[in-house]
Amino acid sequence: xxxxxxxxxxxxxxxxxxxxxxxxxxxxxxxxxxxxxxxxxxxxxxxxxxxxxxxxxxxxxxxxxxxxxxxxxxxxxxxxxxxxxxxxxxxxxxxxxxxxxxxxxxxxxxxxxxxxxxxxxxxxxxxxxxxxxxxxxxxxxxxxxxxxxxxxxxxxxxxxxxxxxxxxxxxxxxxxxxxxxxxxxxxxxxxxxxxxxxxxxxxxxxxxxxxxxxxxxxxxxxxxxxxxxxxxxxxxxxxxxxxxxxxxxxxxxxxxxxxxxxxxxxxxxxxxxxxxxxxxxxxxxxxxxxxxxxxxxxxxxxxxxxxxxxxxxxxxxxxxxxxxxxxxxxxxxx
Length: 334
Fold this sequence. Notes:
Layout (H helix, E strand, L loop, with lengths): L14 E2 L5 E4 L2 E4 L2 E9 L11 H10 L10 E8 L2 E6 L4 E6 L2 E3 L2 H5 L7 E6 L4 E6 L4 E6 L4 E4 L9 E7 L4 E6 L4 E6 L4 E6 L11 E6 L5 E5 L4 E5 L5 E5 L12 E6 L5 E5 L4 E5 L5 E5 L12 E6 L4 E6 L4 E9 L2
Antiparallel strand pairs: 1-24, 2-3, 4-27, 5-6, 6-7, 7-8, 9-10, 10-11, 11-12, 13-14, 14-15, 15-16, 17-18, 18-19, 19-20, 21-22, 22-23, 23-24, 25-26, 26-27
């Protein structure tokens, strides 16, 4: 079970663009009034589902061998609290539910006729319903967490490489990223098509292999336009609000952006798999700071992918090649 008062607990190093206004001690660096705290990871050290050694990881990646109920390659996470969440595991081709360090596979995955060769993203449709995508099956799937049933969301919906998915509580609409079609499809809760956004290109409002999406509480949609190396932001009606980002190998630029989310203050968090870090931008797209580096220790990443931030500013990151979920908390001193 998670013990927040025990184990290694430290304040995250925030590598700020405003370094001249920071003060640091070992393992601590406060940027203005922002503090990100590492809380825990799942599996925790000693847990029966804990991640493997470096050499076991390499062997798993090379040979693809499965063994037992272990997280292999988590690529997305949803959470209700730091001890209750759902993990999408691309390596095991399933979703796991975790409660108080206990992990189990929903019965629907054991009974379904489907297999999922390319799980990509998921979102809450309600507190008990999870929508998810598989980019090779080209359809949307619905998991009922209470009944533990699994099936197609709508048999009439056929997509072209669906990846990111998000639900707007403001408009009660489902936004789906169609990477293969370079566009966004918006559906009602019943699956009726409402609107299509985009098309291939590099102009504002166009996409070149979009992937991840996040919708905030105000209905704004934040979309990773991967091969244009930028973020595009739309309002709840699908109107373009802003565009920012460009390719590069320094802080504030993008190499391989994978996941996106916002905190309660409106800041935008983007995981970058090649930088092995999380970059944070303000609402205007200005770079603020980043945290994390390549490694296997607390607060380090190996090709991070999905990110989820709950209403209490707990930050959950799918640390894919470390086979774990890391949990952080954002604190802002007034």
